[in-house]
Amino acid sequence: MNDTTDLRSKRYNSIEDSLYISDSIYEDIEKISKEIFQIESSYREFSNRLESYKKNINSAQEEIKNYTSYMGLNELYNSLNLELFNELQLQEELKDRIENIEEELKKVSEIKAYINKKYYEMVDRQVLRFGLNELDESQYKAINRVFCASGSNKPISTLIWYFILNNIKTCFNKKSLKLPMVLDSPKNAEMDYDKEQALIEYILENSSNYTQLIFSSIGFERTKFIFEGEIKIIQRKIA
């Protein structure tokens, strides 16, 4: 009987120990489960935060790219805008210069037209004076045209042309340099007496346009010319 009681006592103790151990294990399992849950929660939270960080980083990277592109485009825009401004400014400067040049060309054209008019009038007077009817007006309408009579009128037309060019120069440039003039036998062609005397008279009339005028002539008679200036005659006699 005592043995049975003792056995039962041991059995109950063993059951109690098992229950205690079971409860202890269950508590440990619950504790570990809570810890696992907390760790999982922390992991999920960390994972979510990580994903959020990734999204923010990607968004920031996209913004950086957009900002970089914006800065590049903005720099390009500013550069093109500056080039356009410089181009427009240059065009305005060129426009002003062209207007000034056109104004100067207009003045030059007016002066040129006036010179041609004076040239024509001066030549035409001498053409009528010397009776150079063979010369057409178109031949001396402008200063850049060359005219020349023929025969005995050739030296007359040459002298008229040269003297008038010099007169035009003096007329439009008062400060132009005056030089001496030497004419070797200006009437080197056969011409009638009246035309010969008219040519010498024309030479004397233009002598004041030169610092000194020297010319040679056959049969020059001082008394036949009315001339207020000083004339020095060197006469060569043939033995």
Protein architecture, described:
InterPro entries: P-loop_NTPase (IPR027417). Keywords: Coiled coil. Residues 43-118 form a coiled coil. Helices cover 67% and strands 3% of the residues. With 239 residues, it is an all-alpha fold. The chain folds into two domains: 1-117; 148-224, no CATH class. It has a two-stranded parallel ribbon with strand order 1-2. Helix 1 (2-130) packs across helix 2 (154-172). The mean pLDDT is 79.
Order of helices and strands: HHEHE
* Helix/sheet category: mainly alpha
Give the helix tally: 3
- The total of beta strands comes to 2
| Gyration radius from CA atoms, angstroms | 61 Å
Q: Specify the helix fraction band.
A: 55-70%
**What is the end-to-end distance?**
206 Å
The best one-word shape is rod-shaped
Instruction: Identify low-pLDDT runs.
Output: none
Biggest sheet descriptor: 2 strands, parallel
Quick summary of this structure?
The protein is mostly helical.
Output the keywords.
239 residues, 3 helices, mainly alpha, coiled coil, P-loop_NTPase, 3% strand
How are the elements arranged and paired?
Layout: H1 2-130, H2 154-172, E1 181-183, H3 193-205, E2 213-215
Parallel strand pairs: 1-2
Helix pairs in contact: 1-2
